[in-house]
Amino acid sequence: MTQNTYIQSYITIQNNEIVLNGTSVFKIEPTDFADFSKQAYRNFDIQYPKFFKMDALSKLAFLGSELLLSPIISAEKENNIALVLANKSSSLDTDVKYQESISDKENYFPSPAVFVYTLPNICLGEISIRHQLKSENSFFIFEAFNPEFMSNYSNILLNSNKAETVLCGWVEFFNDNYKAFLCTISKEENEKYKNETINTLYNK
Amino acid sequence: MEALKEELKNKIITTLNLEDIAIEDIADNDPLFGDGLGLDSIDALELIVILDKDYGIKLVDPKEGKTIFQSIESMAAYISANRTK
């Protein structure tokens, strides 16, 4: 039997601002993403030095997931939280940086630390490592955010008991233009967003 | 040798994005991996790139890295003895 699923929480990161469940929780004067992400990390007092080694896409996904998952992660039991993310530009931002670093044959020193981020699903790995998740995860590339797909995919995972909670959404980063929209969905009743859909929250 | 050690500490902090670590936090004999600076396997590969790019040293046998990258002291000694630039 198909059970109803409910949006539990959501977050949007764009234009130097982080909005959590409709409330602005961090906003600074216009700056580049490197500076914005560092200030956000400091602001939320996150203790995870590996953050600084991540590429921009992973930092973006990490910041969003950190604020959504930290309150619900349990240290006592395994957390069956599936991750389903998508974007338009894949890991192109890092791919371009990496390509530039190997374009000169006379100065050919490919960076292993950059190379490891030349796949978009690495950000799922970073979130999984951070929260010790051994659950389902998938990363999709779409021309634009596809809320229907996200909703259907999340419902299948929840109704087939592949996951107790799904963190799904959009994490797009290219040339310092970025937007992240992430939400958590589960079968736990929650009336707070009963009149909302992933699409309406994404467009707020 | 002291200047080289300082230079290496700077390079490691910058290249490996050790955001919360200052030069003064790294003692010459601190282990770079494990309980010391806590570097990982990707960092080890970046150190091999630093040797090649900045000092003209190509590590033929990556196993050598275990001894060379024990500490700033061991790195500096190896670079001093083998550098080509």
UniProtKB/TrEMBL annotation, chain A:
This is 3-oxoacyl-ACP synthase. It comes from the Bacteria.
TrEMBL record, chain B:
InterPro entries: ACP-like_sf, PP-bd_ACP. It comes from the Bacteria. This is Acyl carrier protein. SUPFAM superfamilies: ACP-like (SSF47336). NCBIfam families: PRK09184.1. It holds the Pfam family PP-binding. It comes from Flavobacterium pectinovorum. Residues 1-83 form the Carrier domain.
